[in-house]
Amino acid sequence: MRVPARLLPLPAALAASALLTGCFSATGADGSGEGERLRVAMMQPPRSGLSPLSDDAFKLSRWSTAETLVKLDADGDAEPALATRWKQSGRDWTFTLRDGVTFHDGTELDARAVVRSLTRAAGASPKPRILDGVELTAKPRGTDTVVVTTADEDPLLPQRLSSPQLAILAAKAYRGKTVDPVGAGTGPFELTEVDGTSSATLDRYDDYWGGRAKAPGIDVRFVPDGTARAAALRSGEADIVEAVPVSQAALLDEDLITEVPMPRTNTLYLNTAKGPFKDPGLRAAAREAIDAESIVKGVYEGRADAAEGLLGPALPWAAGLRTEVRRAAPEKPDGRTVTIGTFTDRAELPEVAAALQQQLQEAGFEVKLEVREYANIESDALAGAFDAFVLSRATVLDSGDPAAYLYSDFASDGSFNISQLADPAVDRALAKAGGTPTGDARRKAVVEAEAAVLATDAAVPMLHERVIQGDAADVVGAAHDPRERELVTLDTHLK
């Protein structure tokens, strides 16, 4: 049975109802009423029509509708998913596919389907960020074996192939220029309907290779407003709510929220290509002006960790490998005007930007803020339209390994290089980290690459976030994943 709705202040209740009422169903898709469907409130709406070649891929993963050849365990090591085993021989990796897997349209998973999906991803523009700096080709060997070849030996390839952006979809998904995941995945839930940026519907796929899901389906509503998401949990309008804002966590029953340290860093990216922060001395002045501890206490109410580097406590090995970083000396800002951009989708970021505005102005800068929804500001940020940009960034989101994040954000040809950084020393350190075999040697090379980035002051890490997820009291088996890959699983259901 569902928990009775809690009383809400009238404006909050009305806001939640306006956003959510009518978008969730309590019965099966066929009206049979078998079990109760899971009602999920997500933070960010789709930005690319739920294409797996974009960040929307992580929604498909969190709904257990699209799957990859391998997945990651708690330590970030690769383990079987659609592939049951793999073997490296130089630049070649041979993957053996799982028997008995069907796509949601009834077609069978085979080597040609895997090759089709990987080839489309490898040729995409822009590429999925997990493939930054990686050239790969895939060829079938019979019906159940795929050989993936990289331009250079890549010790991290299995982990790369765990990225939700490299999900394997049915042929029907690739008709035309876009990739449409509706009815094309292999997971326990089939994506059956998408209503633009408002909602999505998924039904249980009874022929799933891993068994029958315990819930009959999932009804998703995209609710960018954090207050409305929290209100939906309090009022009983939603069963699972992702990314509860810090400001709302104290208003919820502690038994309904889970707080997990996560590999996500709140960073101020500084534009090194043009504007005031092209000057290393002014970047150093900005770095010296930032008081991260006050932001943690004031904005995050202590529910975050002040940053010592780009990699936080979710990667405990990083702190023990760090050495002192030599940086440029700060120069006086002398009233130089800078514009900081950020977005509203994560409720804390506009507050962080406002705190930074005050701190930088006290240091002698003049600061303007530009705040929009993420979908409306991302392209400008990537184009270098701002002097600085506040971003909440997952550091091991794709591969379980931070080398890919560092390359994407700070390599000269990185696909997410908001700082517009082009530094040969950084490029060399990133190349070394990416080419080092997994284990202690790779971790050391990653920390050396982090140091090379920090030495440029292209990015000022401020704090490491904790994910706060809300689950209604009758929810069983919801995932609490610091990598933000899992949410609703095969076993998630309502009592």
What do these coordinates show?
The chain has 495 residues and is α+β, with helices and mostly antiparallel strands. It folds into three domains: 10-65 and 187-239 and 472-494, 3-Layer(aba) Sandwich (D-Maltodextrin-Binding Protein, domain 2), CATH 3.40.190.10; 70-174, Dipeptide-binding Protein, Domain 1 (Dipeptide-binding Protein, domain 1), CATH 3.90.76; 261-466, Dipeptide-binding Protein, Domain 3 (Dipeptide-binding Protein, domain 3). Helices cover 26% and strands 22% of the residues. The protein has helices at 10-20, 57-62, 111-122, 157-160, 226-235, 246-249, 280-289, 292-298, 317-321, 348-362, 378-382, 402-410, 424-435, 440-456, and strands at 38-42, 70-72, 78-80, 83-89, 92-97, 136-140, 145-150, 189-195, 199-204, 217-222, 240-241, 257-270, 304-306, 337-343, 366-372, 388-394, 459-471, 475-476, 493-494. The strands form four sheets. Strands 1, 8, 9, 10, 11, 12, 13, 14, 15, 16 and 17 form an eleven-stranded mixed sheet that branches. The protein has a four-stranded antiparallel sheet with strand order 4-5-7-6, with helices on one face. A two-stranded antiparallel ribbon has the order 2-3. Helix 1 crosses helix 5 (226-235). The longest helix is centred in the last third of the chain and has 17 residues, at 440-456. It is globular. The termini are close together. Mean pLDDT is 91; it is low at 1-19 and 25-33.
